[in-house]
Task: structure prediction
Amino acid sequence: MHAQYVNHIQPMLGKYKLSKINFAMCSALQRNLLKKGLKPNVANSIMQLLKSILKKASDTRMIPFNPMNGLARLKDVSGQNIKDGSHRYLTRDEKQEFFDAARSSFYYAAFVLMDETGMRCGECLSLKWSDIDWNRSTVSIHRTISRDKDGKTIIS
Result:
């Protein structure tokens, strides 16, 4: 976060007092981030940092209101709002292209299973043969695989 502030926010807004920062300046920063070639989700992350700084200033009565209020998040090329860590669904064409390319992959069956059931990757990877009921054509999910903050595998 410090690097985002120093590299992107401070050069444009650092010379102004908090009380002088307005909506137009925030909007100009947002446009400038895109002109620098940053992806919308990266620009949104930087703008979120600025918004939280200005919110704290507003909450502590250093400024009367947050000038970021009302500034829309940037959108990706498909027109969907980008949220940090969010995912989008593949279009039908993208999905078809993916499965055509993956058809010869060792993981093809896992891809199909996850697509057809909505199963997450960690759930699929943790399956055992005993989780499959061939007579009822069902798969039961009893555990998942993930990683902790140190990168160690966790089965829960």
